[in-house]
Amino acid sequence: xxxxxxxxxxxxxxxxxxGFSQEALAYEAGVNRxxxxxxxxGGSFVGLEVMVKLAEVLEVEPADFLxxxxxxxxxx
Length: 76
Fold this sequence. Notes:
By secondary structure, this protein is mostly helical. The chain has helices at residues 3-18, 22-29, 33-41, 48-58.
């Protein structure tokens, strides 16, 4: 399992659920929007400090980003 892609999928899903644009989330977390885009595409590894900042802004636990998708949420 590639946790970079698990993180990317969860970040995208949680961001949408919370109603943030990529730009707004990047600003609130203090990261570059281009970096945010790479994270959501699975093109970059996230550092722990950034993961914690994103979790704080989105009001979730950092571990929520690393939870593998359940069978129900997997696309067929």
